[in-house]
Amino acid sequence: MKKYLIFLLGVLLVNCSEDTLPLYNGVESIYFDKTGEINFSFGLLAVNDSTISIPVTATGPIVDRDRRFRVLYDSVSGQEGLHFDPLPDEGIFPAGSSKGYIPIRLHRVNGDNDIYQIHLRLVPSDDFSLDLTEKYSGSDTIDLTRVILNYSSSITKPNGWQDMIYGYFSVAKYLLASELTGRDETFWRANASQTSIALSPVITIYINSKILAGRDQALRDPGNTDPADKGFMTMRGINSYYGQYVKIPDDWAPANE
């Protein structure tokens, strides 16, 4: 009876979560805690080189020695020596930490507006297995052993830009948001949702005030591809809680006229 109750509790804990990992079985394993894609652009950073640390998590006990794990690259775009340094075939878990990283050194290439990708894949090593290979989010199965790093020398959409809060992304809107909030690429690259929510009214009020002031005062934005906005900048998040959307009047001529 006791064994049955323990089993039932385990089933309930897994099934009640919308975003779950398989149960840890006692074997030290590694997986990417940031799955899917990681975005980086030099954009507004006042540097020409930057080391991106791709985060990796380990199960099991924390130990007092450095531990290394292996990584392979399924696909790489960009030029070694120009866009990035030689890619490491190992990552490291520092002693006393359950968090490891893969260091990738990137370089800005002035005038290069292309977006490049590095596809990383974890593989077993002497210290770690790959027992946690996937997690479940709703009806989706997410691969925990692979991640894609998107990088660019120009301005691209950073991880911290949430469409739910800020609406569509464009370079013009991003530059305005950075100017109004005093935040640079370092902030936008982080996933700081609470701070983003606090800053969104500043951007929303300013953009909406320009629309309410009339067509001549409204901000032009060639990066806004929504036909309803006619080439003007708007602040329409998916969730209206973060800022009221002021509609572009139907009788306005397009911004480029």
Quick gist of this model?
The chain contains 5 helices and 11 strands. The chain has 257 residues and is of the alpha+beta class.
Task: Write up this protein.
By secondary structure, the chain is of the alpha+beta class. The protein folds into 2 domains: 25-152, Immunoglobulin-like, CATH 2.60.40.2030; 163-242, no CATH class. 21% of the residues lie in helices and 26% in strands. The protein has 5 helices and 11 strands, in the order H-E-E-E-E-E-E-E-E-E-E-E-H-H-H-H. The protein has helices at residues 2-15, 163-166, 171-181, 185-189, 193-212, and strands at residues 19-20, 30-32, 36-41, 49-58, 67-76, 90-93, 99-107, 115-123, 134-137, 140-143, 146-152. It has a 5-stranded mixed β-sheet with strand order 3-11-8-5-6, with no helix packed on it. The termini are far apart.
Task: Catalogue the unreliable spans.
Answer: 1-25
- Which CATH architecture of the largest domain is right? Sandwich
Count the E strands: 11
Q: In what range is the share of β-strand residues?
A: 25-35%
Oligomeric state: single chain
Summarize the main sheet. 5 strands, mixed
| CATH homologous superfamily descriptor of the largest domain | CalX-beta domain
Helix content: 10-25%
DSSP summary: helix tally: 5
C-alpha geometry: elongated
Taking Cα atoms only, what radius of gyration do you get, to the nearest Å?
23 Å
CATH top level class name of the largest domain: Mainly Beta
Domains counted in the coordinates: how many? Answer: 2
Strand order within the widest sheet? 3-11-8-5-6
Secondary structure category: alpha+beta
Q: Terminal Cα separation, in Å?
A: 77 Å
Note the run of SSEs as H and E: HEEEEEEEEEEEHHHH
Q: What integer is the average pLDDT? A: 82
Find the CATH topology of the largest domain. Immunoglobulin-like
